[in-house]
Structure prediction request, 100 residues.
Amino acid sequence: MAPYFWLQPAVTGAAAILVLLGAGLTIRQRYRADRKDQWWKRTQWAFDLLLTGEEDREVLGLLVLAQQAAAKAADTRTVRSSPKLSSQWWTPTCKPTTLK
Prediction:
């Protein structure tokens, strides 16, 4: 009998814990990546609305962009560094009174 036979269950348990930890971290990373991917798809859709030239769609695009900028999945570095999200990039064609 090996002198460290009592160590085998402890090593097996530690390996199982490490595997579970790795799987949990992988799932967490995938969840965050999926959220950011969906955020970016919605943001691109909003930009497409802004470029249609139709007032109603432009307003909807602005509202979606405002929501996207405040979303938890938003990468604040992307939002701040994107010239498309700055207020100087696009001037709405509709008057504020038409928003009411």
